Amino acid sequence: MPQTNLSVRIDEQDKKLFESFCTQTGMNVSVAVNMFVKTVLREQKLPFTVKADPFYNPENMSVLKESIAQLESVGGTVHEVLPDD
Predict the structure, then answer these.
(1) Cα 6–9–13 angle (5° rounding)?
(2) What is the value of pTM for the model shown?
């Protein structure tokens, strides 16, 4: 079967880390990408879940924008909330 090249842009550090991962698992980047493509084609879906972060829904963003506007207009201090131990 004829083969072709696939060129993608990726963050330089991510590329280095991915190459290292592939080496540690005994394969190269080409093999890993081909495994991903074959899985997508076979299953007709991404092999992981893609979902939006519910924090960024329109209602939350509206409340956040209002809070920022109020803070900027009235003044105040931003306090960092520390997690419970």
Answers:
(1) 125
(2) 0.60
Per-residue 3-state assignment (H helix, E strand, C coil) for the chain: CCCCCCCCCCCHHHHHHHHHHHHHCCCCHHHHHHHHHHHHHHHCCCCCCCCCCHHHCHHHHHHHHHHHHHHHHHCCCCCCCCCCC
39-69: pLDDT as tens digits: 999 999 999 998 878 888 888 889 889 888 8
Q: Which backbone phi and psi does 17 adopt, to 5 degrees?
A: -65, -40
CA trace torsion 63, 65, 69, 72 (10° rounding): 110
| Site of tokens 């960024």 | 56
Residues 6+ apart with CB under 8 A from 45: none
